[in-house]
Design goal:
17 strands, 10 helices, about 350 residues, about 35% helix, alpha+beta, eight-stranded mixed beta sheet, single chain, fructose 1,6-bisphosphate 1-phosphatase activity, 2 domains, five-stranded mixed beta sheet, globular, D-Maltodextrin-Binding Protein, domain 2, Fructose-1,6-Bisphosphatase, Chain A, domain 1, Fructose-1,6-bisphosphatase class 1
Length: about 350
């Protein structure tokens, strides 16, 4: 009986971060503090989400964000909370957010890091009590210490990330992150107010039988993608789509599968944002043994040109992602041949 009552509750996030500091010889605790700042803000957002219905903070504000999307009250609250935590923490000199058009200058010009963040992904799901999340990427600044953050600090390729992660607000709240040495997941224990290591060294399965895509836009999909989806149906794969990027990614990371948000005839570059959605999840996918592309090239190698740049996104079990790419390339080659034949006949 005493053994059960005194059993270890596990490794706390702060202790885990402290133990891993030696992986960063160029850092002197700043990155660890930055991760703690994100974890603290996530605790506050978790509280706000759990009481959203009672506090009357669900629903929209009646205006659009810089993306032209309806802004939710919790979008604004999350953006303020994370900006405040990162600014007061002192280790971030600049932030780009889904909710803000330009760079947020924190005033910490001595800081070494910049952060790209989607404060509340899937916020429209709040009203129907479906899980949502936060996605973040951390980079070392390129501009000289002591000066304001620059556009060049923010427009870095995903390969330059030194850390990335997400927070999942669901039946339990989880913080999943990587600093380039594998992926680890921490579950929040509200009675203690702490995250504990619950999913050490997370690994993406080589193959899977789940595909996640909004098939409502099927008629606008590339022919190669339609062909791939037909093979998924022939094999009787499970179609699972929450409509929350973090939720769909998390499930497929644990169980094996592919998440797809493609280019369409209406949205040639897809709808997901490269800097603060796709880069972070691509980093986590690769660190866990998975794969992430835009259908043709590695997500982490795309050179961003502006803060809110969009990209198609294929991420998950490598065997499934590669097969989807093969279908896309096969049909693209056929289209090229077809166009050349038409020109010759003309």
């Amino acid at each position: 009986m005493m053994d059960k009552l005194t059993a270890s509750v596990g490794t706390a996030l702060d202790r885990f971060i402290q133990q891993k500091q030696e992986q960063f010889p160029y850092a002197t605790g700043e990155l660890s503090q930055l991760l703690r700042d994100i974890a603290l803000a996530a605790k506050i957002i978790n509280r706000e989400i759990n009481r959203a219905g009672l506090a009357g903070i669900e629903g929209g504000v009646g205006s659009d964000n810089v993306q032209g999307e309806a802004q939710q009250k919790l979008d604004m609250i999350a953006d303020i909370r994370f900006t405040r935590a990162l600014s007061k923490g002192g280790e971030t000199c600049g932030i780009i957010s889904e909710e803000i058009d330009g760079i947020i200058d924190t005033g910490n010009h001595h800081a070494k890091y910049v952060v790209a963040i989607d404060p509340l992904d899937g916020s429209s799901n709040i009203d129907v009590n479906v899980l949502v999340g936060t996605i973040f990427s951390i980079y070392r600044r390129r501009s000289p210490i002591g000066r304001p953050p620059t556009k060049e600090d923010m427009l870095q390729q995903g390969t330059e990330q030194i850390a990335a992660g997400y927070v999942l607000y669901g039946s339990s709240t989880m913080l999943v992150y990587s600093t380039g040495y594998g992926v680890n997941g921490f579950t929040y224990e509200p009675s203690l107010g702490e995250y504990f290591l619950s999913h050490p060294n997370m690994k993406c399965k080589e193959d899977g039988s789940i595909y996640s895509i909004n098939e409502g836009g099927y008629n606008t999909f590339p022919e190669g993608l339609k062909s791939y989806l037909s093979t998924c149906k022939e094999r009787e794969f499970s179609a699972r789509y929450i409509g929350s990027l973090v939720g769909d990614f998390h499930r497929n990371l644990l169980k094996g599968g592919i998440y797809i948000y493609p280019s369409t005839s209406k949205y040639k570059k897809g709808k997901l944002r490269l800097l603060y959605e796709c880069n972070a999840l691509a980093f986590l996918a690769e660190q866990s043994g998975g794969m992430a592309t835009d259908g043709y090239q590695r997500i982490l190698e795309i050179k961003p040109e502006h803060f809110h740049e969009r990209t198609p996104f294929y991420v998950g079990s490598p065997k499934m992602v590669k097969e989807a790419m093969e279908h896309l390339n096969e049909y693209e080659e056929e289209e090229v041949v077809s166009v050349k034949t038409i020109k010759v006949k003309a």
